[in-house]
Specification:
6 helices; 207 residues; alpha+beta
Length: 207
Amino acid sequence: MTKLGMVIDLSRCVGCHTCANACKMSNNVPMGMLWNRVLTDGDEVLDGAQGTYPNLTRTYVPLACQHCDNPACQKVCPTGATYKDDKGRVEIDYDKCIGCRFCMAACPYNARVFNWSEPDHDPDFQTGFKDVPIRPRGVMEKCSLCKERCDADPANEPMCVVCCPSSARIYGDLDDPDSEISKIVKQSNAYTLLEGKGTRPQVYYHD
């Protein structure tokens, strides 16, 4: 069995948003939409801080689909468009998606976006990995862990991992006890977001 996932080291994240932009380019994400966001812990504004000057702290929290082992989004999808593939990723079959947005409502991580209008691209042609499907208006979108890129060559990693300038992201097989990601999860007190929801995310964080 394979269970692909990721560990994000928050102590290394510098909030540069390279992961968000690399994801957007590689997956041909339309203008005005992001699959991968970088939030500021404890603040609703971009690059906000906690504390009172001059005693301020700031922690960035990259957020995308958590590729849950028990995904709430899959349970509410009426057409089977949201599914778990054989590598443990949560994916969307765009041909089956009817745009009901049930999955968007069910996701506790607010990790999906919706094509309300015809996708707007700048430049106005397909960018990124050649096998990434073109999504029409009226379907859900989200992080796919760069499925097409990684399936094309097992040595490939998601573009957010490849492009992170501070090496804050580690990607791999959580079911392989000898993988780097498995060792980090066991040794670093890694945790998942909203553990009480019972979704069992396959994206971990540590400080």
